[in-house]
Design goal:
Layout lengths: L15 H11 L3 H17 L7 H11 L5
Helix pairs in contact: 1-2, 1-3, 2-3
Length: 69
């Protein structure tokens, strides 16, 4: 069930593989998730990207110093 006010579109910036990578990288840690998502936004803006890919997630993970998984 989708929360009120949330619209999920087919063109969402995350695909299943990306979501799995984010979950693997953060291990369910909300603080790491918040840091990673904020950094992903910065990377997308800086590189003029429209979609989050696994490579972008891994780049964010490396630059934040989140452990190798």
């Amino acid at each position: 069930m989708t929360p009120a006010g949330v619209v999920l579109a087919d063109a969402a910036p995350f695909n299943v593989e990306v979501i799995e990578t984010v979950v693997r990288v953060t291990g369910g840690n909300f603080r790491l998730l918040h840091r990673l998502l904020a950094h992903l936004e910065r990377l997308l803006d800086a590189n003029q990207l429209e979609r989050v890919t696994c490579a972008v997630v891994e780049s964010a993970r490396e630059s934040l110093g989140i452990g190798q998984v």
